Amino acid sequence: MNPPVATPADLAATSRRPVDPDVPSAGEPDAPGSARTSRRWFRRRPITVSLVLAWLVVLVALLFALVPGLFTDYDPVRGIAAEKLQAPSAAHPFGTDQIGRDLFARVVYGAVHSLSGAFVAVLVGLVVGTAIGVLAGSLGGVVDGVLMRIVDVLLSIPGLLLALAVIILLGFGTINAAIAVGIGSIAAFARLSRSEVVSVRRSDYVEAAFGSGGRFFSVLWRHVLPNSVSPVLSLAALQLGVAILAISTLGFLGYGAPPPTPEWGLLIAEGRNYVATSWWLTTFPGLIVVAVVLSANRISQSIGRSS
Amino acid sequence: MPAEPIVPSGVALGTDAAAPDAPAVPVPVLEIRDLSVSYRTGHVDTEVVHGISLRVDPGEVVAVVGESGSGKTTTAHAAIGLLPSNGHVSGGQILLNGADISGWSDKQLEAVRGVRIGLVPQDPSSSLNPVKTIGAQIGEVLQIHRRGNRSYTRAFIRTRVLELLARVGIPEPERRSAQYPHQLSGGMRQRVLIAIAIALEPQLIIADEPTSALDVTVQKRVLDLLDDLRAEFGTAILFVTHDLGVAAERSSRMVVMRSGRVEEEGGTADILATPRSDYTRRLLADAPGLTVTEFRRPADPSAVVPDEIVARNLVREYPAGKGGKTVFRAVDDVSFTVPRGTTHAIVGESGSGKTTTVRMTLGLVQPSSGSVEVAGLDPQTLRGEALRQFRRRIQLVYQNPFGSLDPRQTVEAIVQEPLRNFRLVDPSARATRAAGLIDRVALPASVLSRRPRELSGGQRQRVAIARALAADPEVLVLDEAVSALDVTVQAQILGLLDELQRELGLTYLFVSHDLAVVRAISDTVSVMSLGRVVESGPTRTLFQSPQHEYTRELLAAVPSAHAGA
Predict the structure, then answer these.
(1) pLDDT for the residue A175
(2) DSSP string, B344-410
(3) Digit-coded pLDDT (tens) for A213-268
């Protein structure tokens, strides 16, 4: 994603159509095409604070998951009974829970469960959904019809209901919850990738690729996929946030990881009993989930814009 | 709408203190003095128009000629204050009836646009709003500018719209005014845009490449219409075009632009007779209609050349009408043969079935009946691997070089693609071969690492030709391959194709809507109309003694070329 920016000298020197074709057609009086023009020549947009912040949050969450020991010395599972239900302090920045476990440690150690679950969920949706969409879009005809009707059925079932049904079939656990959430997002990925593929598939360069001796799958891989994938990636980033939320929801409902796993949704569920007396037990894990989800959305938006 | 007296708007509105007391010399409708225009990219200003001057007197047609990137469109847009938001006038004056409008705000310019200057934009397919009827779009101009003029009632606007549609030659204005742009052909859409431009009877019409997207026959009709309007209303026309042929035929004065500067300016006849600058001379030589090129010498009749392409009685039908009950014959009984190493041109307007015909030749469309053989193989009978190998032998170069190259690949990857797929050379030799091909089509080696969007249209078309050559084909199908290019680039590509044919013994199937273009490159021609071949034969015979009326019409539509060598 780093197109060589044409320098003015280039433009002047080679008369490489600096203006003509991109000048907005004058039927529309107010030059709406100009933004596009300038973007083409100058793809680097100013880096915004919110985007940097979003990446920082995601980075920290990732570090939580990879090297939790770096952030806290407390044990996330074993508590010290004497220190139960303490309000946030210097020693326990997020406070402690009913059996004296440090909440910050639990949030840090919980990241790996929530994030890996989200990644698995998105991976399932991305791979299966995109495969269905690309096949449907490029083969067309009966295959397209059958695959898309299956997707329609998936879309018609409410996401949470579908996830619960799948978990009941697969059994409880973090990974199973993740797969359940992933199955729920297949439909969205399939729809989006199909619509992209359908338009790319009809382009001259794809026909030319067949003319150059390309076989079906090599053309799909080399031309159709790269040219239709960026909105799908943007959706993947968006789904990451949605999946964290969905997995937390399942954890909250007791369909995810069993206690004492410090999964974020489960933390909120456990803190619910003390919401009147110990606000920090629900508030801090909740804020962490919100921050990560919002960051994922912000990053997704930036991917979407650049494509 | 018979000649309404329109003495008025111009002179009456006509302006300010400057005008009235200079009766001797007519005040030019538009005068541009030392105009410079810059575009801002990032934080750098790039000047693209460097101090040009030109004037348009009342009732005069001035053509601004130049290739893409010469700044002609920018100049025209600056004259009406429609530069894109990153462009600005960095020097000079734009005088409209003697008043400098270069510093005016959009608000002030609104009073001028449409009322005193009309604009006919370049691309009829994207310049109309697709979700409004054309009647509403013409009416909009009248509505916007009525400003308290009580005579502009709804009924009046409606009558006026119908008058305008009738005036620009649209049949059944009642029915058409209720239709949407997609229901109209390209030529008709351009007429609608002209109707919008003349709705308020401006003194000046700026026509920005008004016919570049149209077939030659349609182009002729649209240009005739502009001529009539000028004669009728005395409207001055500033005509922006890359086609010197069109400019030569239609303008009284001509301004030749290059790289943002005026190369030459003067009476059209003078410039044509004695061009002063080298650039003008080159443009003249490249314009297919203006320079009488030699016909190809007919091949030695005694030498027996086998036919490379044989098409017999090709028919392609599509279901049409409600529920597909009737059929539409896109291609109706088309036959032609192309001897090896020669060029056969298929000429016709859009919708004549020429593209369907070549797609059947390529095996991309199945004929409803009839057969085609390329190098002894019938693509209809081929499947799978055999079809893939067949495709190597007949390569297609597309009309639009902006759509036929994968935007994510580098030029090197694009050219290597056939080498890879057909395993024509060792993987290690691919890069060398690709570089050789790029050199073959006269591109510098530096383009290899670039992506298509960094190249100009002509360069992209060369890349497309290099890719086609990489497959080492016997037949090259060129589907309007030069139609989207400037005349100069067009001449270069045609020259390149000619050279390649001589050296590699290629057979060409050349599709075009423009007879002038095929004159120099083709040995034989088929003229298609409404799915049928109306006339075919050796190029010289066809040009010198056209038999069919449609062929004569096509020849007459070539600007300034008056057939016969």
Answers:
(1) 85
(2) EEEE--TTSSHHHHHHHHHTSS--SEEEEEETTB-GGG--HHHHHHHHHHEEEE-S-TTTSS-TTS-
(3) 888 888 999 999 888 888 888 888 888 888 888 888 888 888 877 778 888 888 88
Instruction: Report d(CA B363, CA B378) in Å as an integer.
Output: 8
Residue B200 DSSP class: T
Q: Using an 8 Å Cβ cutoff, are A274 and A85 in contact? A: yes
Interface ipTM > 0.90? no
CB-closest option in B73, B82, B196 to A20: B73
- Does the beta carbon of A43 lie under 8 angstroms from any beta carbon of chain B? no
Best mutation site among A19, A39, A228 for testing chain B: the one with the most B CBs within 10 Å?
A: A19
Rounded to the nearest 10 degrees, what angle do helices B487-504 and B457-470 cross at?
Answer: 20
Tokens of B121: 């934009």
Model confidence pLDDT, tens digit, residues B510-565:
998 878 788 878 889 999 988 889 999 888 888 888 888 888 888 887 776 333 33
- Whole-angstrom distance, CA of residue B473 vs CA of residue B159: 59
Closest alpha carbon within chain A to B259: A15
The lowest-confidence range among A280-294, B140-154, B406-420, B423-437 is B140-154
Report residue A137 as tokens.
């879009």
- Residue among B41, B122, B404 whose CB faces A42 most closely: B41
C-alpha span between A169 and B187 (Å, rounded): 63
CB contact under 8 A, B85 and A35: yes
Asked if B46 and A14 come within 8 Å (Cβ–Cβ), the reply is: no
Contact B39 A203 (CB under 8 A): no
User: Among partner residues A8, A40, A211, which is closest to B391 by beta-carbon distance?
Assistant: A211
pTM of the model: 0.72
The reply to whether CATH 1.10.3430.10 applies to domain A47-306 is no
Handedness of CA B160, B164, B170, B171 (dihedral sign): positive
Q: For residue A39, is pLDDT > 50?
A: no
User: Cβ of B82 and A26 within 8 Å?
Assistant: yes
